[in-house]
Amino acid sequence: MRGSTRAASTPVMARAPLVASRRRASTFASASRRGCRVTPSANATSLGLDLEAPGWSGGYGTGGKVWSSAAVLTRWLGANAPALGLEGASVLELGSGTGAVGLAAAAMGATRVVLTDGGSESLLKLAKDNAARNRAPGGAIDPSCDIRVARYRWGDGKLPAAVADAAPFDLVVGSDCTYSVGGHGPLCDVIREVLTAAADDAARVVLGHQHRCGAAMLAGRGSAGWGVDPHLDMFAKTAAAKGLVVEEVHRESLAWHGLRNVSIVSVELKKQLAPSKTNATGDVGNAGTNGAVAAAAALAVTLSSLALPAAARQYSDYDPKQFDEFLPGINSVELSLAQPNVCSKDAFKAMDRARDMYEIGQLDEAEKALSSVLNGTCGGPNPTDADKVATAATWKLLGDVRVDAYRWNDAIDAYNSSLKVSPAGTSAPGALFGRANAKEGLKDYAGAVEDYGKCLELRPNGPDAATPRFERAQALKQLGRWEEAIGDYDAAADAFTANRQKREAKIAEAQAAFAKFESGDVPSATARLETLARQLYSSDVRAALAATYWRAGDAAKAEDTWLDLCQIEDAQCGKYTDKEWLTSYRKWTPGLADAMQDFLKLRS
Description:
Layout: H1 68-79, H2 81-84, E1 90-94, H3 100-107, E2 112-117, H4 121-135, E3 146-151, H5 161-164, E4 171-175, H6 184-197, E5 204-210, H7 230-241, E6 244-252, E7 262-269, H8 286-304, H9 320-323, H10 326-330, H11 342-359, H12 363-374, H13 385-404, H14 408-421, H15 428-441, H16 445-458, H17 466-478, H18 482-498, H19 502-518, H20 522-535, H21 539-551, H22 555-565, H23 579-585, H24 590-603
Parallel strand pairs: 1-2, 1-4, 2-3, 4-5
Antiparallel strand pairs: 5-7, 6-7
Helix pairs in contact: 1-3, 11-12, 11-13, 12-13, 13-14, 13-15, 14-15, 15-16, 16-17, 17-18, 18-19, 19-20, 20-21, 21-22, 21-24
């Protein structure tokens, strides 16, 4: 490796702001190789990157924001630039979104940067525009710097030409690439391919990970609250299975901003074990067993390294006020705060406590924790923008708690309060989705359709659009608006497929077939169910297919299909006489359930 970033203790962050206000200045003056860096002024305190980060609007999805993990990763790269050999390096950014981290690497001295993302064309254009803006005269990056932008969705096969032509890379970076467990395998495949192609094991891979999973992993508890984020743990296990080693090299609390912990992890190729010795018959001898034991021990050491030792469990020692320069300049992190804020910190601690109670079913205690801060430090006059964001998030979580308690009207009141404080902020899509759920609980399906639509207006594309689109279709089904429901089911199936959520995609496809049946298009419903029956080992799909055959007048096919499906283990054929079970539990449409009842009555 080019150099180690792991000192005797956890590396600390640099004290000088390294990323990003709108000021056009740079830092890291160097007497050596120039790289892509613009020579800074004598008292420069920022990289001076000028980035557009419009957030969710415009079809950018999650990539349109610069998350807090990107801020921490960029500062960490700056603090460890010499050890990483960043000056003159070739850098690949995975899941680049706006390109913030990769462009910061260019401003720090990298000579070649390739920004990749699997998002929309508009998102790739955003990254290209950000690169062009910062390479323009007077920008933070020298115009001669080689910066490329390429579409690359992990798991699509070989690296795209723009990436392969720039290989090998000295440094691979990514922020929040590990938030989706479903993407861990493809991500590890990409990392392994890049590391394997690197000459002399010179490449380094460092990723920023924002803790999201489980209340115990949230910031704001001091040293007693440090824990392993399950997503990070699962990523380490997936990486180990693919011959990679994950090590956490830095962890930071952003509690003063109401944000969660961020970890920086290094990913390396696992050292190869000695070849197993075999006897004359080809059986693996003791050497193979010893190798397996060694591999298991190495994995255990790797996973245990994710829990920092007591001496390392501390907040970063630089002044948190310096971090504020990043947040409003990018206008994209979850909370853009001008200074540490009492309401935000109190709200975050209350949400932390509420999630603890929520997870063990103590909904009353969760409500008390949230109500206390809403009636306290976040209930005062003249709230700041940060207060509004924190308050909206707290009201939204209170609505979620009340939905789980089946207190539909109270939940709607909480969501209304969240949306009143922040109609289009980061909590708004979740508040609209939750309010739609509550309206469905009250059987106000028209109101639910309206709120799901508003949620989709804020998040029209990307991975977060699949579920609200499916749920809107479910509400449309209750209203008998079949053609609209079919459109949403089909769109949801496509979105789930893009997210690699196969099970959810097939459920949406089945529901679309049911809606086709209700619309009177029995041939199309039959064709869709026949396709699903070939793809899935599902008794329910075959039962629905038998009902459509019967309604189409093909009694022989209906009977054959029914007899075949009843051979499937756990087919529950006896329950299909219960229409309530079909419509409430199996989510069949009324007409399809009636067709099944007619078919079974004839058989009996």
